[in-house]
Amino acid sequence: MNLLILEAGDLIAPDRARVTGRRLVHAREILKAQGGSTLRAGLLDGAMGKARVLTLGEDALELELTFDEAPPAKLPLTLLLALPRPKALNRVLASASNMGVARIILLNAWKVEKAYWKSPRMEPGNLREQLILGLEQARDTVLPDLQVERLFKPFVEDRLPALLHGAEGLVADPSGVEACPRKLSGPTVLAVGPEGGWIPAELVSLRLAGLRSVHLGPRILRTETALAALIGRLG
Amino acid sequence: MNLLILEAGDLIAPDRARVTGRRLVHAREILKAQGGSTLRAGLLDGAMGKARVLTLGEDALELELTFDEAPPAKLPLTLLLALPRPKALNRVLASASNMGVARIILLNAWKVEKAYWKSPRMEPGNLREQLILGLEQARDTVLPDLQVERLFKPFVEDRLPALLHGAEGLVADPSGVEACPRKLSGPTVLAVGPEGGWIPAELVSLRLAGLRSVHLGPRILRTETALAALIGRLG
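Structure tokens for the assembled complex are given below, as produced in the milestone run.
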């Protein structure tokens, strides 16, 4: 945790906060916070800066806040991500948030197993927590937009074309002939498929909606690795 | 597993192999191998191609091999990596191998906890297995060189300068003023620090040895994410 993220409910005055639970334990045990010490902190979806420890008890940490910095800019990137397996989901979301993706859309695909949608990890509270963990790591306060699309066809046919107005559209596809571009030229939608890839009919639909196939070379990368490599290359 | 990797001990004739254990289970249950079906396979550190299933029993899978493809080229990249915490080590090694890093050097640093060196995950058999998992994912057969350096100072002062003959040297450093370059210009040594970063004295030593500080923007990334983002950008 490189940034302690406070939520509106933590504020006990405009410049005072009271923190409990996971963040209290982390501040005490990992950041070695003590009375008088200063932590980096920020307000969720707001400014960031310093938090001076006023009191540190067993149950709560009280802080005095001086928030005068803007969070870092997001990448103008919408990630269209076939729902990863539950084991990878948390890491993938935290990683996308860590890297500054502005919007994440979790989408169904033929090779996404139905059971993935029923995983406890899909509960909104967990999804939000993973995004916040990514922000804490990055020193950012702004939650990416997260959208869940359980049906591939209506999303891709009816709503994706509108997302592509004024944006570049790319789909990561090891069979693509064009190498992934090396820098975002503006707002971009990037589609990343499931393990095993998109099926040909899905690739056709994504291309018809306006996405170009791009590849990262002959290697097949794990979803998490591919995602970070693509964003590192585009960012 | 996108490629079944065979080792010399699996060969029962120049074009025949017998596979047991993890790879047998995976071939049967995940790849749905059956008599007559064909799998992608390769010989560790050798050629790759197709393997036809001759017999598939409870205890063993027998294959007929037609290996006529070269493995994909490696990136001319030496990764100088502060030893990650055991929880991350397996994923980081598999990911580096997955992405085609030619050489990995695990190095000590001030913020590497001593206990990390004593983790069971540091056993040579585990290290090798993680590298092979990355190759299986990538469809590559060539193990990266792996070197373990328990002492920072003698390595960086005495041996690193020789590694940098004819190579570019970079150290990922969020405080760097230069953005990470966008493409490898030739053989490159890339140093990636521990969680919490290199300490100033280590950065001085790395710079004296010939590495340039480069950054990936204002965000602090997790080791795994930073590594994939750096390699995606450089690759």
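Chain B has two domains: 4-69, 75-234. The mean pLDDT of chain B is 95. Further analysis is deferred to the final report.
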